[in-house]
Structure formats: C-alpha cells, structure tokens
Amino acid sequence: VLERRGGELHPVCRFRAHDAPVTDLLFFPGPSPTLMTASEDGLAKTWDLSRSLASGSDAQCVNQVACDGRRSPVWSISASKSGELLAAATQQGVLIWRKVVDKRHGLKWKKHVALEESFCDVVTQVLFHPDESSSGIGAGPPIVLAACGEDGLVCLFDLNKGPDEDENLLAVLNADSSIAQVGFFGQRQGGFLWCRTNDETFRAWNWTKACVSQEEVGRDVTMGESEEESEVSSMRDARKNLTESLSRSAPSAKIDYLVDCHWDTSSAELRLCGGNTSGQLFLFQLAVEAFDHGKGEAMVRFSSPKDIKPLRSLCGGGHRSVVRSMDSSHAPDWYLTCGEDGILCQWTPSRKGYGGSSGVAPPNRAISRYRPY
User: How many CB atoms lie within 10 A of CB 161?
Assistant: First the structure.
C-alpha cells in the first residue's frame, strides 16, 4: 500500500493478503480507510488499514466471504457508491452481498442475490454505476450494475428491482468478442458505456437509450435493432486506427495494445490510452461532450477513426515493458500506471507532455516458477 504525499509515492505497508494471485482490489467507501481484495483462492476480503497507515503494521482482515464451496476464482469486485452492496465476478456468474453492521463483530456481508442465468461463460468484470446514491435496497433511484465476460456480452442490471434476475435485467449489449474491460462515462448521470475487447476492439453505447429501447420491444428481445441504435462508436481495429493517428506527428511510433479508457471531467472528454511493447504510452481524445441547442441536451460526439487526435505521450523514463493497468481517479490530469516490469509510475503534466515524477519498483529477488518438464 502506497500513499501520495507532496506529489511523491511513499510505501506505507506490505502484507500477504491471499494464498493465490490477487485479481482485483478497491478502496471501500466509508469513514475509515478500508481495502477490499479478490483472489483466485475464491475469497473476497475486507481489510482495515487504520493501524497500517498510523504505524506501518500489517493490515487487519475484518471480514472475508467465499463465493462457493469449491473456492472458484473471484475475477473482479465492485462496491456501490453508498457502500451498501458488494458485487463479485465468478466462474458461474455474479454474486451480490449486502452490508450488515454488527455492533459486536463489525462489518459483515450477507448474500443478497445471485445473477447466473444471464451469462453463457465466465464473468470477468463487474462495475457499479458511479452516480448511484441510494442509501437503501428496494426503494429509491436505480442501482445499476454492469457485468461482462468471455461470452462478449455486457449485462446491465438494476439491483433495486428485487431478487428476480429477469426483472432487474435492464439491457444486454453485444461486443462480439471476449471483453477485457468496461466503464461508464458522460457528465450527466454517466449515460454512456465504453468497452474494450481482448482482440483490441473498442465500442461504446448510450446504455440508457438501449434500456429504453429494449423495454419498448419486450423483455424477451435483448439484442438487435435497439442495440444498433444505441451504439455510438465502434473501432474494429483500434490498434491500426491509433497508429495511423500517431503517424501524423510521430511516424515511427505504433500502438500494440489498448491499456485503459477514462472520462476526464475537467475537459468533458473521453480519453483512450494505448501502448507498445517497449513501454511507451499514448493518450488519445475519442469524444467530447457539448450542448446541443437544437435538442436542448448535452451530447457526446465521437471522432471518426481517421480524425482521432493524439493528446500526449507518457514516455519519459517510465516503463520498459508492457503496461497492464492505468488509473486517473486520484487527481485531475495525473496518472498512475503499472506493468510487467514491476514498476508503478506516477505521471504529472509538463510542457512537453507528461513526465514520470516518481516510481516504485519491488526489490530485486529471485523468481521461482513451476517447471513441469
């Protein structure tokens, strides 16, 4: 666990959380610093970081839940903004727990609902809508959850409609390929959803429009014309499109893979990050939000593939290999990246683009791998 102080990254504590690789983690909303982790050992754990931040001691595990008796891997976790619900992506589907505060034993999770019938394959990511503000279950505004996986489908649920899976299924969007990552975007209620696939395709939908359209045509029709009408962007070969965009200013640069995508609230634009095997990263502007006076509402306008604009490069003294993850939620226009070189980099704005202000790498150590032959 690291803390950002004075623009620099400082290690706070380090502890063994699971007996198998950690697949996902998040900081849980609440009054005390709380970390949640998921692992291939089939467990999702809740950690109290209060003592760790104060003295550097190991974090305390205050609760753990097992997805099933077989300890199937947990591939992703997500918490609702209110902190009332926890979702986990598993081999069989999606499990939802509801928070219960026990005065004697502290935080606990009670199984709320299992979503299993909507998926044909392994679910690899779950994500609650960021603007959910309901403080109770069963009443108030929708609690929207997106779930996706290897079957190429993005399923959208409203968990305030009760435990029946058919009733809380809002819409199904088809990416036509195994999905790597999804995210909500847009200034007003996050009414859009982006998706990148494992074969480097990028797609985006107006998911609120898809929900209305699919409700109008009936619950049994979840894909088809209504989905096509809600799609706002599709790049079948995003690597090629981004490399062509770079060639206008950097002819030798190329994009080998997509890293992440995020919505920049200060500029009201959607940014996509791509990288290459040498560790270079590039940011591109895919869409901007503007007010349509004719329709009287804000609209997100995507650039055509040939008009995509490169924004910045993240190349100065950062990574030396493939970058696997990126985060921009900690501060406006600042980025954190980590990759296969074992380095965590923090990027800050500069006149020439971006420069890595600080980086943390693990200590050199021998790596022992299982060799079956």
Answer: 16
**Residue 223 region by backbone torsions, left for phi larger than 0, else alpha for psi between -120 and 50, else beta:** beta
Predicted TM-score (pTM) of the model is 0.87
Residue 139 contacts residue 81 (beta carbons within 8 Å): no
> Which sign does the torsion angle of CA 229, 230, 233, 237 carry?
negative
Give the chain's length: 373
Closest CA to 24 of 58, 67, 84: 67
Q: 203-249: per-residue pLDDT in tens?
A: 999 998 888 766 554 444 445 445 667 899 999 999 999 999 999 88
Determine whether 155 is exposed, middle or buried from the number of CB atoms within 10 Å of its CB (0-12, 13-18, 19+): buried
CA distance 190 to 129: 8
Distance of alpha carbon 67 from alpha carbon 74, whole angstroms: 7
Whole-angstrom Cα distance, residue 350 to residue 335? Answer: 13
Tokens 């999606």 map to which residue? Answer: 94
| Residue 278 neighbours by CB under 8 Å, 6+ apart | 320, 321
Tokens representing 52?
Answer: 């760790």
- Only one residue has tokens 């709320």, namely 112
* 318-365: pLDDT as tens digits: 898 999 999 987 666 788 999 999 888 888 776 555 555 556 665 544
